[in-house]
Amino acid sequence: MKLSDFDFELPDERIAQEAVEPRDAARLLAHGLVSGRTEHAHVRDLPRFLRRGDLLVVNDTRVVPARLCGARKSGGALDVLVLGPVPGSAPVLWRAFVKPGGRLHAGEEFELESGALRARAVARPAAADGRPGPEWHLAIEDATGRGRAVPALLEDEGRMPLPPYIRRARDAHAARAHDRDRYQTVFARATGAIAAPTAGLHFTPGLLAELAHAGVDRASVTLHVGLGTFQPVTAERVDDHVMHSEEYELSEGTVAAIERARRAGGRVVAVGTTSVRVLESACDAEGRLREARGSTSIFLTPGAPFRVVDVLFTNFHLPKSTLVMLVSAFAGRDRTLALYAEAIAREYRFFSYGDAMLLARRE
After folding, report:
1. From residue 54, how far is each of 51, 190, 308 by CA, in Å?
2. What is the pLDDT, as a whole number, of residue 90?
3. Is 263 buried (19+), middle (13-18) or exposed (0-12) by CB count in 10 A?
4. Does residue 17 contact residue 167 with C-beta atoms inside 8 Å?
5. Full DSSP string of 172-204
6. 222 shares its domain with 347
7. CA gap 152, 41 in Å, rounded
8. Which helix (H) or strand (E) holds 76?
9. What is the mean pLDDT of residues 96-121?
């Protein structure tokens, strides 16, 4: 397979800049992979497409507001995305992407978020080829005198790390507050992601209650979405791509819920590609699931077996991305691209704040 096999033309106007309200008012393309039947509905219509005994599996990761805006003393603007602590550093340093990182130098100090935080560039580790790597190690502290630790500073002062195709002005305070709520699922619990599991953004408490009333159970997995979600695939041969790794957890309770659903003839409905990655990572060749915790770099492309997931609820993804490859693995490349073409023609909204699709292997 070649990277170009997963390319398609997407007009800029199809990239959603804002989420619809309410969350479940997003449009839904529902397609049966056996019958070939396609229906156009809304996410709020999910109870019509799911049935008693089905199990909804959601990713309960919580996004950290880890983006910080600031300026160098020279006046140049800086964007900082805090990735996490540097292992073993004392005092604690923080891994971060800085734009424009090439202009910083070790020892340079700068302010972030109108002076609420102070940072110092400590080091820029080298990449494997010896050139300067993409990350900086920063010392970060509360500049207000309140003594807040970095996690609290991010919660109080940080911005949601929206993907680059969602454009926001640096001083758009109203949008900033809105995104803090909207770029987080209603079932977010385990803090650790720097990107949202976007299929989950469509659910409301009311829709979840309606599904429960209809006999659709719900269970959770955790996968902390990382920046690799947005990193482009550069290898022309798909098999040459090195997949990013992400931390995950599959609990004993979720394993038991899946086993109950299977015994009762229900379907496992994965909400988002991240839930798929957890379930298929923790499954052996015979289809047995086990409680698991660790990291996964599973890369699902056409021809990969799906041993757990029967139905996939997902957003519309970027051309040539590992996400559209995963959907193609589940539904077939030609069918996926045909459905995407239909969605574009019908003016569906794409990417993180866009519309959704429901793909059923068992109808």
Report:
1. 6, 24, 13
2. 93
3. exposed
4. yes
5. -HHHHHHHHHHTS-TT--EEEESS--GGGGG--
6. yes
7. 41
8. none
9. 95
Please give the residue range of the domain that contains residue 80: 67-158
**Residue 170 falls within a domain, yes or no?**
no
Listing DSSP states for 251-316 in one string gives -HHHHHHHHHHHHTT--EEEESHHHHHHHHHTB-TTS-B--EEEEE-----TT---SS-SEEEEE-
pLDDT mean over 23-44? 98
CATH code (residue 144): 2.40.10.240
Residue 197 and residue 133 share a domain: no
The residue to which tokens 């140049």 are assigned: 76
Does residue 311 share a domain with residue 216?
A: yes
* pTM listed for this prediction: 0.94
For residue 8, give the H/E element and its range: none
Provide the 8-state DSSP code for 95: E
- Total tally of structural domains belonging to the chain: 2
Beta bridge partners of 359: 31, 312
Find out whether 182 and 19 touch, Cβ atoms under 8 Å.
yes
Query: What does the pLDDT average to over 286-314?
Result: 95
Per-residue pLDDT tens over the stretch 199-212: 999 999 999 999 99
Give tens-digit pLDDT for 45-92.
Answer: 999 999 999 999 999 999 999 999 999 998 899 999 999 999 999 999
Residue 226 belongs to a domain? yes
Contact 82, 66 (CB under 8 A): yes
Q: Are residues 149 and 290 in the same domain?
A: no
Do 268 and 324 belong to one domain? yes
The contacts of residue 171 (CB under 8 Å, 6+ apart) are none
Query: Are 313 and 264 in contact, with CB atoms under 8 Å apart?
Result: no
Question: Do 260 and 148 fall into the same domain?
Answer: no
Residue 71 lies in a domain: yes
| 72 domain-assigned | yes
> Residue 230 has what pLDDT?
64
C-alpha 84: how far from its chain's center? 17
Q: Do 285 and 263 share a structural domain?
A: yes
Question: Which pLDDT tens digit goes with each residue over 157-179?
Answer: 999 999 989 998 887 777 788 99
